[in-house]
Fold each of these.
Amino acid sequence: MLQMTDVKKVFRTDLIETHALRDFSLQVDEGDFVAVTGPSGSGKTTFLNIAGLLETFSDGTYELDGVNVSQLNDKQRSRMRNEKIGFIFQGFNLIPDLDLFDNVDVPLRYRGFNAKERRKRIEQSLDLVGLANRMKHLPAQLSGGQQQRVAIARALAGEPRFLLADEPTGNLDSTMAASVMALLQDINARGTTIVMVTHDQVLANQAKRNIFVRDGQVSELSTGAAFPNAAIA
Amino acid sequence: MFIYYLRLAVKSIKRNPVLSGLMVAAIALGIGSSMTTITVNYLMSANPIPEKSHALYYVQVDSWDPHNAFNEDDIPNQLTWTEATNLMAANRALRQAAMSRTGGIMEPDNKDVKPFEVSARLTFRDFFAMFEVPFLYGNPWSARADEKREQVVVLTKRINEQVFGGVNSVGESIRLFGRQFRVVGVLDDWQPMPKFYDVNNGAFEESEEVFIPFMLKEELALPSWGNTNCWKAPEGDGFEAQLRSECIGFQMWVELPTLEDKAAYLDFLHSYVSEQKTLGRFPRPMQNRLSDVMTWMEDQEVVADDAQIMLWLSLMFLFVCLLNTIGLLLAKFSGKASEIGLRRAVGASKGDVFLQHLVETALIGLVGGLLGLSLALVGLEGIKSLYGEYIQALAVLDLTMVLVGLVLALVSSVAAGLYPTWRACNIAPASQLKSQ
């Protein structure tokens, strides 16, 4: 599904060079749920941005679903993001003056679905996260946990095979965090591959695999977790 | 997607009403000022008779002072009585009409209507067919009326309403210049703008109120109400001496459908002037000219210099307004960076983001354009009150100008939005998503 080999990312200014990723290699298989942990500044978010085609890399190879992404132009990268990747952010990143329906609609608009298909997918996604009855609410009318659920619904509406979550529970209290984590596990159980960056080791332990990133390099901690704490949902 | 982008644009405008309002106001001010001056220039330079302006020619010959050109090496812009009558008598064009402006007192038979002053155009019957003047009642006078100097008159619609209450007055008689005239025709609404057939006497003044046969000038010793220029004093006193002098105060138009006709008429003018030279007239080198309608108006600088200067100033003002709009758009779009980052992350290409923001810019431009047109109406009213009656007909915003205003607003706002929009679509999504 995701294959990074010796990926390097260097941020350059006139004065300094910062090596965010050094020979970063990782394989994520179809159906995996990978938690990425590591100290601040270790390169977790840079990895996630490169994995999500939001940033380019300086060297190495990255294949997503068998496609060498370094060969793609902006339009092709955008299309790949739209069709294959779903994003969940720590700050939810909902558009404040669009209601829930229109927020979930955003990626579908760029997919070119007709109105009927979009409506069906939006309703299904919001139903999955338990907010089907609040479609006409604005994000500000929801709690943080509910807003993150809307963001998850938006990420799932296009039925991506790959979900990237950057600190999805970072802005939530423990109850809401557990609820969101349970939802992610449920989504993974339905076949969606998930890579989640988190600082929370408890949540990370609930993933199938744990990756620890330090100084822009990977050290895998564990594999094969089978959601031992899934019951907390 | 266009409808979607339009919806997003409306939401975005509502989200920042003050910023959006400032942009609309900047565009409106620029469009308002430029459309005011563009309208005046457009009407000043409009083709008043587009269907045949290429076939109508103003006649000029150089009968001026041997020692000084008429005007900076140019030839006289009017004819003498002698040339006007001789060229008419030669009858070498398909249609031809010499003319001049006069005026006097009209005394209606109806005692309820007090005598009043009217302006009159002395001309020949071809004037009406040549310039496609529409008739409400009756017809032009006959060729015989021209020849026999009959006291016949064609009234404008307004005068007919004033004197005869708007009914068909053909055959009625009316007292004009102290003589009895017979009404042969009543014009429908007709006001060429500019009044191309006599730009020497006010290109933007209203057409004359009555039309009478040209030769009545001599018959009734009618005064001149137009510009008259002389390079030497009349030989003798009185009206007759003045009329037959070298003073110029008459215009002449000919209709020549083909270039061959034009060439033939120029040959005729050369022959005529050569003949006059043998009689001791036309002391200057031969220079005869036929100018079609648009060339004539350009030659006579119908579009005033100050109007053109005002146009350029207002376009510069529009440019300044657009610079302000660029700044405001940059501020607005940078405030939307996180939304743009999100849209890019979920699949919008740079092209999608560019189009979305271009639609928003165009919508702002359109609203600014509509408001600007309202300001242009106010500006035109201001020009009317500033310059007075003679510019009344120029201060009108017609459908063409409304469309020009909207297109100008759209094009200029989109042009102003290109750089901010380009900046918006180049926002790095990764940097915006984490920072929200």
Note: Confidence is low (pLDDT under 50) at residues 226-233 of chain A.
Amino acid sequence: MYGSPSLARLAPLLALLVLGAVLPPLVPQYFLYLGNLLMMYAVLALGLDLLLGWAGQFAFAHIAFFGVGVYATVLLQTKLGLPYVVAMPAAALLAGAIGLIIAIPATRLRAVYLALATFAFAEGAQWVFNSWDTMTGGADGIRISSPSLFGYAMGSDPKAFPVMTVLLAVVIAATLYLTKSKFGRSMCAIRESEHAASASGIDVRGTKILVFAISAVYAGIAGGMYTLFNSFANPEVFGFTQIVLVLSMIVVGGLGTLPGVLIGVVLLGLMPEIMRTAMRHLLVWQELVYGVILIVAMMYMPRGIWGLLPRRRRRLARA
Amino acid sequence: MSAPLFSLRNVSVRFGGLHALQGFSMDVAAGSIHALIGPNGAGKSTVFNCVSRFYTPSEGEILFEGRSLLELPPHRVAGLGIARTFQNIELCRSLTVLENVLIGMTPHVRGYFPFAPGRRRAAAERMAVAEAEALLERTGLAALRDAPAEQLDFGNQKKLDLARALAAKPRLLLLDEPAAGLRNREIAALDALLVALARERGITIVLVEHVMQLVMAVADRITVLNFGQKIAEGTGAEVRNDPRVIEAYLGQGAYA
């Protein structure tokens, strides 16, 4: 139940890596693009889920850390000439450091006040992305020259795909390691009853700050993943629609459950693509569509799709 | 009386204009069962919430084994060996019975920092689970091991709240109305359990309780609070006949 990941639990991760190595020559590029997109969203959603699903903190600064990850990964390469393998982790750590700084005041707030304060931070970050022309390119956006990894140029979907699978596998392994432990229990205890947690010896504020920072690192990594298969980013990528989309993914899939979040990522991550191709006339309504899905999910399946599955099977999957 | 294990010295707590506690002092002898009684709103739970460091008194001192609790952050209190239950039952409702007990064991489970080496951490977890299962066995919750706490009936939720507190291996146990809402048969079992904890395992117990049948049966000493002030202290017989206590409970003129 708890402890170090067993081989059986790691098998899906190995399968993911094998797919990463085998699929690119076999599958049309568009599908690889979708795969890359979903893997990036998976990292973004798993990070938000630590904060929201596990620790129960309604914080929306996540999308800003995603932006920090994208811009910092690009700028550390172009301005400082660092290679991607250094720039991406550095950008993720930068996002984590900003997360830590935000968390120190933010963790004094609760519920709706935390939501509002972190939302304000995300809007502030959006303003910085829009205004700091010399670094971010402002509203016109920033061009992402394809990063090279050990001499292999990225920038196309087939080339990025195997790297994306490796990054996702690392993030999933890290998530399992963090959650199947005393730390995971501490997060749950804080979500369910701060009084019981505190009286049981859990450092409520310290744990919240740590989760906040870790969640920001996830968002930073997702930002670094974005730069592998996109050639352009503008502040709209880090806007309100995105945070609603990621929020919908974890709520629809199942808050605080790793398989549930991944299911939510696949279902909702494909929605914009389906709307763009099959239901063009719906595209202008996409924010409304997410909103409706979110409300319906919260009303009729508060534990998400994963929560609808029979309990015994879920236990097996967790064991 | 030898040096008290736990004492409050002249503690005052104010909420705006309301004095929840006013210059309240109390000494609890090691190994004793000490009841804290008084009408609703007298400040009994406020005492516990000061110990848990949810409230900080405006004046006074709280000492455990001679050490000031008010200098510690809230999460360090459990580590000293002080555990508590809650009047309104605070459980992690969607977590299982076992997980709730594991949360109670927090001060004793190693590897708080999530990046501890995997194998050693796994061994610590296995030991913790085994210990938690033994505790569930003792408290009669073993059959409910994997049930979510919210699905338990009221009596079992109370038991779990207590089991979670016992999981911390406390030397001082603060119980906030453990008998409230229990049936007579369950109260008799609780009576036996409290006496066993104090006499056999040497756990000092402070009991906030309205069920006088339980208080009179188990308490070595009783402190009576009213409007944030101590109005009486002594054995059951002494307190029961104190005119000020009768007045507090029954109103003025009741004893005349």
Note: The two ends of chain A are 5 Å apart (CA to CA).
